[in-house]
Prior knowledge:
With 368 residues, the protein is of the alpha+beta class. The protein is built from 9 helices and 11 strands. The strands form 2 sheets. It has a 6-stranded mixed beta sheet with strand order 3-4-2-1-11-10, with helices on one face. The chain has a 5-stranded mixed beta sheet with strand order 5-6-7-8-9. Residues 26-336 form the Inositol polyphosphate-related phosphatase domain. GO terms for molecular function: phosphatidylinositol-4,5-bisphosphate 5-phosphatase activity.
Amino acid sequence: xxxxxxxxxxxxxxxxxxxxxxxxxxxxxxxxxxxxxxxxxxxxxxxxxxxxxxxxxxxxxxxxxxxxxxxxxxxxxxxxxxxxxxxxxxxxxxxxxxxxxxxxxxxxxxxxxxxxxxxxxxxxxxxxxxxxxxxxxxxxxxxxxxxxxxxxxxxxxxxxxxxxxxxxxxxxxxxxxxxxxxxxxxxxxxxxxxxxxxxxxxxxxxxxxxxxxxxxxxxxxxxxxxxxxxxxxxxxxxxxxxxxxxxxxxxxxxxxxxxxxxxxxxxxxxxxxxxxxxxxxxxxxxxxxxxxxxxxxxxxxxxxxxxxxxxxxxxxxxxxxxxxxxxxxxxxxxxxxxxxxxxxxxxxxxxxxxxxxxxxxxxxxxxx
Length: 368
């Protein structure tokens, strides 16, 4: 067998030094938060609860996750603020920084599109296992001409696997379901990266898609009926009419994604400064977090994604939305180091010289 035929077989690295059969290369807790802040500034608001800094459910003998990924929508977009943001962090990023800096987290990626913002923060011990960080955005407002709606994202190689985090804000209002589906299609079609083998969102092994997705309830119940149903705790009845659930089932949008059923009340629309529903709009689960796992077509590699929590944070009354968070446990199990796994998943065009020497040495040792 020639070298390139050998390499093409999902790069059969059987000649390369293995760690131990079935060893866990990495196990990481990822915390995702999404919040439509309604154009408000954070001022002196505490994010301790939103970030679960008083204790998470991560099973890593730590009080904090390994990675935070935070998506905000409707961050203030006044022209003077956008100019200042070119030179310094916006106020929401700075507020998160104030909470996470003391715990040693490092911001490794950020992307903004008008009112949409995504940040990623990582514990220092993982930095050397992160490669090829890219950010991207896609406008979907006014037929793709305006960035009031759309998506911002961060993708990276994490311990040799491809991971994408997509935060989006889709078309609003009950009757705009078709526009929300069109927004989703535009993002999927137009959101591209430079990393070989991971050009598109769904090329990645792990995908997390979250934000104010704006899906409403596809029923004729009045706002008062819905409020009463929520107050009586009959959330399962409402969920049957959830538009996101329905479009996933019909394959019209997000059909490649999974979501744990929300067991918290609808997160929109509240009277600002209270936890009372604003009866000008029908309550709905607008703020969502979805996920996807796709194992690589490579031998002896096992990936696992376990959702640990999915909750809203009702004590926040700043905007007409409640923040929503989710925690996930990523497990990467392989017979290779994460550098070797990186070669397998990302292709030979980006291999470092030491790895090239290692691969060729291993190849010739197996041949002769």
